[in-house]
Amino acid sequence: MKKSFIRTRVVNGVGEIQLDRPEALNALDPSMIRDMHAALLQWRDDQAVSAVLVTSCSERAFCAGGDVKPARDAVLAGDFDAVREFFAAEYRLDELVATYPKPYLAVLDGVTMGGGLGISVHGGVRVVTEKASFAMPETAIGFIPDVGSSHFLPRLRGTAVRCDAVGMYLAVTGARIGAGDALAVGLATHFVPRELVGDLADRIRAGDWQEALDEFVVPAPESELEQRFADIEKVFGAGNVDDMLGRLTATDTGVDPEWAERTHSALRALSPTSVRATVELMRRGAESTLEECLARELEVAVRISAAPDFVEGVRAVLVDKDRAPRWSPSQIEEIDPATIAALFGD
Ligand code: QUE
Question: Taking the model in full, what pTM does it have?
Fold first, then answer.
């Protein structure tokens, strides 16, 4: 029998899913998505299960995303039915998490990117440790932030300090943030030090997850991102991609010039098609339900996977790992608005 990449068990009414594909940072392949979906469905209708806990067996990662390498192979084979089915299955899992009728807890102790957010952020409890990091890095591989992110990113506003633009910033730049940042924007809900998450999981398995959290949660670490909220709001708060680029290169905006320079070069290295599509996706997502967002993301995902940058981006980042993608078109200014409209089926 083929090895399964997830382990499941039920202890004291807690259904536990442990992601077990450490060699791929728990990137979600079709079998993991299928097995996770099946376990969640079974537990949803099982009176003996009162809560679900999702953890990782890897020290490095919770989950690096949906495994896009097989999707790239399907594109190269011209099998777009397979591409669609891959993403559709992943988004159905995300929607099941979002609508799950029982408490859903994820322990995020390591890298969480892309599809990793899809199986955690839509749940009610997202515990982070100081080793947690988050990113939606799809614009770096010629893709779009998906897994419902066009619903949850436009709704991040900062908690202590308000910032409406932070979701747009995270989506467009793919910036990686830490545990304190994730708590400050609401991607995470609770902080527990790494040295105590094993004990936390044991206490959750003992049956009362709320008591367990009460016992182990400590105050959140500082957020560096929060220090940037004013600049992020000025640059990413309104307008189109050209406005954003203009504000990053202008000298009279009051934005920290060192951060503006860094952010500008980061943006220029990303897929121009992805950057434009992502801004449009987030704008539309701000006014849509999660169901609408997932349906839209699926259509854009299938169409953009057929554009040259997806095959090239996954090649550069995950296959050859030269990190030197050759984008086509190569500049944001060269993108025809009709190309973006077509991605959205307009
Ligand atoms: C953007 C992404 C992904 C990424 C890197 C990006 C992504 C993904 C992985 C990944 C990482 C490690 C693995 C693996 C896949 O990286 O979606 O198989 O071993 O799954 O810049 O969207």
Answer: 0.97
